[in-house]
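QA checklist item 7 of 12: single-chain prediction sanity check.
[x] sequence parsed
[x] length recorded as 325
[x] structure emitted
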Amino acid sequence: MKKNKYIFLVASVIASQFFGSCNGDSIDKVNAPIAYEKIGGYNTSDDVAASNLISKLSFENNLTDSKGAITAAVPTNVGYAAGKKGMAYSGSSSQERYAVANASSAITGLNNFTFSFWINTANTVDPATAGQGKGAQGIFSIVRPTEFWGGMNLFLENPDSAHPDRVRLKLDVQNGRAGVAWGGQDVMINLDNVLNTWIHIVISYNSATSMVTCYTNGALSANISGFAYAPSAGLVGTAPWFADNPGSIANINNAPKYGIFQMVGTNGKVVLGTHQFDTTPPQNNGSQQGWATSFVGLLDEFRIYNAALTTNEVSALYKLEKDNR
C-alpha cells in the first residue's frame, strides 16, 4: 500500500509540473509564433512593389498619407465609416465632401503608374436635376489650375440608362508631352452586379507598351471601354492608348503610341473626393458643373505606385488586403 501511495505521489508531482508549464505564456516564450503563409511571395500588402509605392491613404479617421507624397490635406465635411480594412473614407449623398492637399513631384511626375483601391458604392443618379450625389462623382484629381480637367481624373461616370445596375468607373489622363496630339485618354471599367459591395480595383499604365490594364478583385476586368475605338462589348483587361487618331483599334492609321506620360500645368495640388472643378471655390479656372458632384460611396486603402504592377503583384495585393494583411 505504501509503495502504491508513493508511486501515485510521484506521478502527481510530474503531472503538476507538466501541466503547470502549460499555464500562462510559458509556451509563447519558448515557441516562435506561427508565420502566415506567403501569398505570391509576399507577407503583407505593403510588401508588394514596396519600392514603387509612393502614396497610401488608409483613412483611419484621418487623411494621412503613410508614404508622405500627399500632405497638408484640408478637409471639407470629410467623414469616415467602417471600411474593408479598418476605417474608410465616407462620401455623402446629401453633403458635399472632399479634401484639397499638397502633392510632391512623385505624384505630379508620374509616368508609369498604378492606382489601387477598394470601393463600395451604389450607382450614380441621373443628373437631370442638379444636386449632391447626382451625376459623375469625383474621386481623385491632380490639379491643373488653368485647365478644365486635371492631369489625372478618377471618377464614377454618369449612369447608363440601359444598365441601371452598372457602375462605370473611369480614369481620364492628360498627356502634355510634345508631339502627343491626342493628349486626353480614358479607360472605363464597367462593373455589373456589384452595388453596395466592396470590390478591389487596380488600373495601371505601362508607357513602354502604351497599354492600360484594369483589374477587378485581383483578375482582369471583364468589360473595359471608354478608349478610342473600343468595341461595343468592351475588352477584357487591357487596351491600347495612342498619341494620335489610330483610325481603328487595330491602328490602321499607324498612329504613334501614347508612350511616355507627362503631366504639364500642375500646381502641386490634388483633390480627393470630388473633381478639381467642383470644390468651393473651384481649383481651376472653370466652375461647378450640374452634371458632376462629389463622391457618395466608401473608399479604402487608396494606393498610388510609380510602376505598372504585374498580374502576380495585383493578385497578391488583392488577396493580402482581403486577408487584412
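[x] summary fact logged: DSSP finds four helices and 18 strands in the chain.
[ ] second reviewer sign-off
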